[in-house]
Amino acid sequence: MTIQFNRLLPVKGTIGLAFMLALASCTAGDGTGLDAGGRPVPPGPPANNDFQQIQDTILTPSCSGCHQGANAPQGLRLDAGNSYALLVNVASAEVPGLMRVNPGNPDTSYLVQKIQGNAAVGVRMPANGPPYLSQVQIDLVRGWIAAGAPQSAAPADQLVVASSIPATSEQANAGLGKLTIIFNGDVDSSLANTNAFALRDANDRLVNADVRVPVGRPNVVEITVPQPLAAGSYQLSVHGDGPAPLADQSGHVLDGDADGKPGGDMLIPFDVKPIANEGAVR
Amino acid sequence: MMRLNILRLAGVLALALAFAGAAQAEPYLAAQMGLKCVQCHVNPTGGGMRTVFGNTFAQTQLAAKRIGGEEDMWTGQVMKFLSVGGNARANYNYTDVPNQDSANDFAVEEARAYLDFGVIPNRLSVYIDQRFAPGNSTNLEANIRYWITENSIYVKAGRMYLPFGYRFEDDNAFVRQLSGINMQAPDEGVEFGFETGSWSTQFALSNGTAGAPEVDEGKQITARTEYAGSAWRVGVSAVSNDTDAGDRFGAGLFGAFRLGPVTLLGEVDYFDDDSIGIEGRKLMASLVEADWKVLQGHNLKLTYEWLEPDDDVDEDEQTRTSVLYEWSPIQFIQLRGGVRFYDGIPQNDLQNRTQAFVQLHGFF
Q1: B97 and A212: CB-CB below 8 Å?
Q2: Which of B40, B97, B273, B328 is the Cys-Cys partner for B54 at CB 3.0 to 4.6 Å?
Q3: Interchain CB distance below 8 Å, B246 and A215
Q4: Of the candidates B341, B253, B275, the residue with the CA atom closest to the CA atom of residue B303
Q5: Does the predicted model carry a pTM greater than 0.95?
Q6: Radius of gyration from C-alpha coordinates of chain B
Q7: What is the pLDDT of residues B292-343, one digit of tens each?
Q8: Whose CA is closest to B127, among B190, B200, B43?
C-alpha cells in the first residue's frame, strides 16, 4: 500500500503536526539550584533554629499552659506539635485582618502585638502577667518573623504527622467542622486529596469532606466537612500506602505506622461531644 | 425479525450520525470518527453516560467483534423515559519509586452508575452520576438539563463536570491536574451550551470550589469552544476563579487531527494562580497523544506530557511518558495495560517513579 503523504498532510495537518512536535519537545528539568521540592535553594545562610528556641523558652513554658487542647483560647494551641502550623500565615481570630505571624513583617503580626501589649483587642499576653516577656524574648520573636518565620534549620528526611486537631482519642467539642493535620514537612499538595485522607464515622461510612493545603501553610492539611460533625465516634485515616500515598514536596512518602520506614496508614480516632443540653429532659 | 432489527440498528446509526453534535471521555475516538462529544454522551461536554448512538458505536465500531444476536443490542434505554449506564475499572497496579521498595496491589479504580430520566424526550432530563467505589457512595454529577431548542441550545444546572480542554479518561494527566477540572472534581453551578453545526460552545458559572462548600463571595467562570471538523478540530478554553485565597486564571488551546490510522491530539494549558504560596505562581502543562488503530478493537496509545510547576523557577519541569495498549475483544469490555514513566528533578524520587497497570474495563 502506498501512502500518499501529499493527501494525508494538507496545510492544516502540517500546522497540527508542528504543534504536536512542539509540545513533545519540552523536557524535564535537571534540578539545578533547587531543593527536593523543586523550589529554589535560598541564597545566604541556612534557616535558623530560632523557632525551636522560641518554642522551648517562650511558647511551651509561658503560653501552652492555657493554649493547649480542645479548649485552647481562640483555638490557638501553642504546644510544640501545633504552634507553628497555627501561627504562621493564619488569620487571627480576634482581628481576622491580621495574621498571627506575617512572615517578614513583625509589626503586622498579631502575635507580636499581643506580647508587646499594643493589640487592638484583648489583654496583653501572657494573660497571667506581669511579668510579661522580656524585651530580649520579644526581640527574638520579632527577629524570627523578620527573617521570614522559618520553621527549622534542616528539612526532615521523612514525612510524619506531627500533630492533629482534634488529636488522637480527643473528645472534640460539639460543632467540629474542620480537622487540621500538621506534618513535620511541606506536603505535596497534589497528593492531598480524598485518596490520601479518609474520614469515617462509627458505622465505617465515609464522610464527605474537602481536603486542601491552606495557602501559605504547606505543612498543614485542612479537612472541611459541609456540616458540623454530629456527636459520635470518628476515625481519620491518612494513607502512606496505595498507588497514590501522601508524600512531602521532596517525595518522602508518609511514615503512617511510625515504623521508621515510608508507608503505612496513620489512624486518628476521635469523638465529637454532644451539644451541652442535647438529650436533656425538658 | 432479524432483518427488522438490522434495519432498526441501521436507522439508529443513521439518525445519530445525522445529528452532528459533541465528544467522548476518550476524545481520540471523537477525533478519529469526526464526531462531537454530544453524539456519544448525554452530557454534551462528554464523559459519563452514553447515548443510544454511543452504545451502538461501542458495540459495532469499538469492539473487535460483537457477540450475541441483533435482538440483544443494548441501547441504554431500559424504558421509555429512563436510560442507565455505568463504568467499572478493576486494576492491578505496580509502582516503583527510586530508593523505595516497589508496591503492587489490586484495586477498583472506579465503579460508577449513570441514570438519565428523560422526562421530556430530547428536551428535559434529570441526570445522576454516582460513584460507588473506591470508598463509599459519592455523587459526582446531579443536574437538570433542558434543551431550550432541540439539539442546539441547552441549560444545565446542578453538580457537573466543568467544560475545559479535553475530557481525558486519565484524571492524573498533567493538564487535568493543573486545571483541577477533571472527572473527580465536579462543581456546582449552571452551564449554557450551544451546538451549532461543527461548533460546540459552553459557558459555566460555578462556586469554584471543586464541589466543596462555598466559602467566599467569588465565583468561577469557565468557557470552552471547539470546532470539530471531520479530519481535524481545534478549540480554546478559559477559566477565571475569584477566591479570597487569590485569583486564578487559566487558558488552554487544544486540537486533534487524523493521519491515516493514527489520531494525534494535543493540549496546552497556562494558569496564573495567586492562591498558591505567598506570591502566586504561573504554571503550564501540555499533552500530546497519538492513538494508532492497529485493527478494529485494538488501539496503541502513546502520550507525552510536560508540566511547568512554576514559570519563575528554572529546571523544575516534569514529564510523563505513557505507552498503553487497549484491546476491546467484544462489546462493553476493554483490557487495558500500560506503563507510565515519570521524569522530574533528580532530588525528588516520586517525580521519577514508574507505574504499570493492567485494567479490566467494563462499561455500558
Answers
A1: no
A2: B40
A3: yes
A4: B341
A5: no
A6: 20
A7: 999 999 999 999 999 998 898 899 999 999 999 999 999 999 999 999 999 9
A8: B43
Last residue of a domain, one of A114, A146, A178: A146
Q: Rounded CA gap, B39 and B45, in Å?
A: 10
For domain B2-363, the CATH superfamily is: Porin (2.40.160.10)
The span from the CA of A141 to the CA of A150, in Å, is 11
**According to the model, what pLDDT value does residue A1 have?**
46
CB-based contact B41:B49 (threshold 8 Å): yes
- Asked whether residue A232 is assigned to any structural domain, the reply reads yes
The domains of chain B are located at 2-363
Strand locations in B74-219 (E)? 77-79, 82-96, 103-120, 124-133, 138-149, 153-160, 187-196, 199-206
Q: Which domain holds residue A137?
A: 50-146
Instruction: Tell me the pLDDT tens digit for each residue of A217-252.
Output: 888 899 988 888 988 899 999 988 877 789 888 788
In this predicted structure, which of B80-89, B105-114, B124-133, B214-223 has the lowest mean pLDDT? B214-223
Q: Tell which B residues from 263 to 282 touch A, by Cβ distance under 8 Å.
A: 264, 266, 268, 275-278
Interface of A with B in 122-181 (CB under 8 A): none
Residue B345 is classified by DSSP as -
Per the listing, cell 481535524 goes with B232
CB B133 within 8 A of CB B147: no
Rounded-to-integer distance, Cα A158 and Cα A255, Å: 7
